[in-house]
Write a structure and sequence with these properties.
Rab-GAP TBC domain-containing protein, Rab-GAP-TBC_dom, Rab-GAP_TBC_sf, about 50% helix, 20 helices
């Protein structure tokens, strides 16, 4: 039996908000939801060199929130790395629905200071109480004092709960990453030179080999640049070139509205180089997955947070720290990036089906209208939502807030992610129920600005209040 209304707690006036209506240019092509990935230039924010945060007792100022870039990615595009031109169309008009909290309600200064103090207290303990840390962080981590950087590393298991082990663990991991770079990012000429260098010839041949060149007699068939052997380092190098070029293109397209990631400054270029190094090392260490378009979008928030740590030593080691946290985060979603597993119980289609079932459980009327009446396949919008962890549906600052909650869930981020996706549908249910295939698809592929606190509140309620 279809549910005719959502729970009363959802319609509370506390979450109702009125926003100005914006216009959008018409786009009636139903196939546009398959269009290639593109970016719209947005107001610059969250950019520049590493941020120096205020002292813990100070009120943390909200980062500017730029207009959300419109990015459309289909599942084939996400894997094949296809991009399109810039599109400056505005998002769909925002209706003043009671079920759509469209104004960002910033936590009060007192709440920020209180939560920051609680987090600093937990971080100062000899052994961090992870359960309490998760509880506090799930409400959002204030920007300042390097709190988010430390908390995310703890939540992702990169730092142990015992603070006395932090120094040794960080030293070990950073040394390991340095070794990965030396082994995996080295040009084959240098590898060959090192392999063929004879200890007894160090005196006379050192001078001739200083340029990295080898004599013809020193190059074996397996290490010849034209060798097609499976074990040939040159053959592997040329095979990797295509992936490296794709990574380079995607990294340069990462958040073009932010000087932190984009631009001609040495700071932006060094950040791009760090992202490229991480993705290349990951691809070579994970031949089963390698690199899939979209991984750069998941990597960006991690690197941004760690690189902006006010602790200079931490910021300087952001690349190594980000690599291991990226590996840990992706471990829970890696099957979504493997096309061979798409139709398996752990693949992306199974996860999207789980989202569909979750919506049916909590709002069968909306589920029936979307999937039965208007025939909007959830893959048309949920593929991007899930694979990119909502990084493209909201502006960067709001994405960080959402990730605070995702990473804090002891059940793992995927369950929380699906609840948030379900809440996103419920919050705009009136507009969806009034829409047809075309209008609903446009709305879901260009999700309207939303009260993030409300969204996370509703998602948490879905955990506590199953169907009934």
């Amino acid at each position: 039996m279809a549910k005719n209304k959502v729970p009363e707690w959802l319609n509370s006036s506390l979450w109702s908000a009125t926003t100005a209506t914006t216009s959008s240019s018409a786009d009636d092509d139903r196939i546009q939801h398959y269009s290639k990935k593109h970016y719209a230039t947005a107001t610059e924010s969250l950019d520049g060199p590493p941020v120096t945060f205020s002292p813990p007792a100070a009120i943390m100022e909200e980062p500017p929130r730029p207009s959300k870039p419109e990015i459309k990615i289909k599942d084939k595009d996400l894997r094949n790395g296809v991009s399109s031109d810039i599109d400056n169309n505005n998002c769909n008009s925002i209706n003043n629905d009671e079920d759509n909290g469209t104004s960002y309600v910033r936590p009060s200064a007192a709440e920020d200071i209180s939560r920051q103090a609680q987090l600093l207290t937990e971080l100062s303990r000899k052994v961090v109480n992870m359960r309490e840390l998760r509880r506090i962080a799930s409400y959002g981590i204030p920007d300042g004092a390097g709190i988010r950087s430390a908390v995310w590393k703890l939540l992702l298991g990169y730092l142990p709960a015992d603070r006395s082990l932090w120094s040794s663990e960080l030293g070990k991991k950073r040394s390991q990453y340095k070794h990965f770079k030396e082994e995996l990012l080295m040009n084959p000429s240098e590898i060959t030179r090192r392999l063929e260098k004879s200890p007894v010839c160090e005196n006379d041949e050192a001078k001739s080999e200083s340029s990295g060149m080898l004599s013809r007699s020193q190059i074996t068939h397996g290490e010849h640049p034209l060798s097609l052997g499976k074990t040939s380092i040159w053959n592997q190098f040329f095979q990797d070139t295509e992936i490296i070029e794709q990574i380079d293109r995607d990294v340069k397209r990462t958040h073009p509205d932010m000087h932190f990631f984009s631009g001609d400054t040495s700071f932006a270029k060094s950040n791009q180089e760090a992202l490229k190094n991480i993705l290349i090392v990951f691809a070579k260490l994970n031949p089963g997955i390698r690199y899939v378009q979209g991984m750069n979008e998941i990597l960006a928030p991690l690197f941004y947070v760690f690189r902006n740590d006010p602790d200079e030593e931490m910021a300087a080691c952001a690349e190594a720290d980000t690599f291991f946290c990226f590996v840990e985060l992706l471990s829970g979603f890696r099957d979504h990036f493997c096309q061979q597993l798409d139709n398996s119980v752990v693949g992306i289609r199974s996860t999207i089906t789980t989202l569909s079932q979750l919506l049916k459980e909590h709002d069968e009327e909306l589920w029936r209208h979307l999937e039965v009446t208007t025939k909007v396949n959830p893959q048309f919008y949920a593929f991007r939502w899930i694979t990119l962890l909502l990084t493209q549906e909201f502006n960067f600052a709001d994405s960080l807030h959402i990730w605070d909650t995702l990473l804090s869930d002891p059940e793992g981020p995927q369950e929380t992610l699906l609840r948030i996706c379900c809440a996103m549908l419920i919050l705009i249910r009136r507009r969806l129920l009034a829409g047809d295939f075309t209008s609903n698809l446009k709305l879901l592929q260009n999700y309207p600005p939303t009260n993030i606190s409300h969204l996370l509140y509703v998602a948490n309620k879905l955990r506590a209040q199953p169907s009934g």
